[in-house]
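Q: Here's a chain of 294 amino acids. Please give me its 3D structure as tokens.
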Amino acid sequence: MAVFLTKESKVLVQGMTGGEGMKHTRRMLAAGTNIVGGVNPRKAGQSVDFDERAVPVFGSVAEGMRATGADVTVVFVPPAFAKSAVVEAADAGIGLAVVITEGIPVHDSVAFTSYAKGKGTRIIGPNCPGLITPGQSNAGIIPADITRSGRVGLVSKSGTLTYQLMYELRDIGFSTCVGIGGDPVVGTTHIDCLAAFQDDPDTELIVLIGEIGGDAEERAAAYIRDHVTKPVVGYIAGFTAPEGKTMGHAGAIVSGSSGTAQAKKEALEAVGVKVGNTPTETARLVLARLETGA
């Protein structure tokens, strides 16, 4: 089982013919992702060869969906064009749009996440590594060869910490790993992923990775208390971050006593979530929880 992305998913790549799009399309194909086309209005009707596999280029998401039955799009377009790319995908009725692009203005993210929700399109990101269901499909930039299929579900604000936990728990494996992105506005939240993993019969334990800034982790803690019966293990990045300084992600900024790592850790621990002080300790907590069930 998996959440949001399966081996049946048919994937388009908006911006496939650009440098990043080309590089990561090749990686996604190598991971077994069923990429059915790219989107670039200026190159419609052409195709791109990836290691002897020709991938057609369509003039629009709607055209690509009509021709292939695509239900997922991965967005690799520059920040200035990201809003229009997502709106186009939502207007076409795509089910899932994975927005890898970083540096998108917050007002654009607010606009397209709200618009897509109204159209029934789930957004992962922006400024995220995407998501992977190991052994089935990989939509984004997550390395496909550092873990295997298994029984842990992972949701993370941080791309690099996603990779680290995947590697540290590679012998256990994952149902799906979702990098939701660390911008102030994202389309899919910790809570959305918690709900999906709670409903997935093959996910036995959930790992939640947060970071300083905002109150997403505190809201996730309240959701866990009320709705999640599976064990959850957490990690919060940013204990040493200085006040008032943005750390990596645009959303990772502490103002006064709001959004601190300690406050988030306390909120999660108050609802029974084991929280590691380092990624390695977090992995050990996962192993112990799976072994004992406690």
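Q: Can you summarize the key feature?
A: Residues 95 and 121 are 5 Å apart (CA to CA).
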